[in-house]
């Protein structure tokens, strides 16, 4: 028989056991953070940001109508199905019911219309895909919305990978004075620091210039795996030495920073850390200013194209990369393999210099080359290139420039240098996306175009190409554009880019880590709901 004292002891024991079990579960749950460093700045307003850094935030805070599969194909998301009109001038989307924003309000067609109207009116960020394309957005009923286009646009579904749905009521409750009439600033100041989305994560802490931390949205409309990371923290660029220490201490799960080969090898040597490899259709360009002396001269641009030592760059400085063949990456649909490819030839480079209108007075026209400070090995490329440019008589100045400054400089022709070395990824998985973002006049004031072509004929060729419904004919038109850009040496086409990321492979599951699982769309590679963390495996490493 149990006495009262024994019963009390057992009760206390069970209480302690429950408490310890609960603490254990809570501790395990708290140990599923996903922390990365990639670059900065980051914009969390889907109507402003257009780079990888910002896209990674959009895909976690917001939802879109469609979602890319691992091969870059659109699949249903907020929209459960869609229809295209026979004439290609309208697309109708049927929304799922019961999707709520993070404040509990249901997402409806009115929110979709408001979000698209805002993109079109403001024309910033990825707005270039929609501003001159969307004629009207029509709310058919609460769960049906139709986009009416000015002209057919065959890759329309792919462009929607960069369209995210805002909570209309929340934004309108937070508008301030601005230039958009009744919509004031369209919520720009509010959305710089706050989310109005329905995504799987919501903002926990945001210290602009330092980090942004997100936490799981417990009411997300799709189920999240129990091992899915519960927190997602993005740090601004960190020194290589700090990255290595944080990886060793298991305080950093992923490094997207463009660190040097030596640093990559050092990180790879850490137990439990591997190097993830990924290609996203990126190309590293020498973006040549076609309206600034002396790079406004085609012969100077061709001379620079002949003077780049592509083999040394792709075999020694960036091993694993391949020389680009024009503006389109080898693995992007619509690539034309017949495009002319420059090679290293200083004699041909000198011949082009002598044909230039600036020949004989080149000392008066220095060529300024800006390169992204955050990419450590890029300095080696620039030093090699400048050495050879000087051999052919060009006066060159090299400037190590932080990414945020490059973005600002490219905003005006007067501040844009002769050349900026930048890589860009396609907005949708076709060559047409690159032409729109890189060479159409509507993007001339963005970081994606330092060429300043401002050519109405080229604009029309791009617009006509993306209208073509037949895929083979559309790709043929893409090929003609590739030949034009190479023949006129509007840019230096340096190399197709692969990205290499140290990550905690032992206790982290990252679906796109080995570069062989499809074509990841820019920014979707770090969607937190697909990344899993296993705390017990992490603890194994910490105990060693």
User: Sheet with the most strands?
Assistant: 6 strands, mixed
Residue-averaged pLDDT = 90
Q: Give the strand order of the largest sheet, numbering strands 1, 2, ... along the chain.
A: 14-18-13-17-15-16
**What is the percentage of strand-forming residues?**
15-25%
Structural class: alpha+beta
Query: How much is the radius of gyration in Å?
Result: 26 Å
Measured as a percent range, the helix fraction is 25-40%
Q: What this model shows, in words?
A:
The chain is 32% helix and 19% strand. The chain has helices spanning 4-30, 52-61, 109-122, 156-159, 168-172, 188-191, 240-248, 261-268, 298-306, 310-317, 346-355, 378-391, 403-409, 431-439, 456-467, 471-487, 535-543, and strands at 33-37, 66-68, 74-76, 79-84, 90-95, 134-141, 144-149, 201-207, 211-216, 231-235, 254-255, 274-278, 283-288, 322-323, 367-372, 396-401, 419-424, 491-496, 499-503, 508-509, 532-533. The strands form six sheets. Strands 14-18-13-17-15-16 form a six-stranded mixed β-sheet. Strands 8-9-10-1-11 form a five-stranded mixed β-sheet, with no helix packed on it. A hairpin with a 3-residue loop joins strand 8 and strand 9. The longest helix is centred in the first third of the chain and has 27 residues, at 4-30. The protein is globular and about 70 Å long. It starts with a helix and ends with a helix.
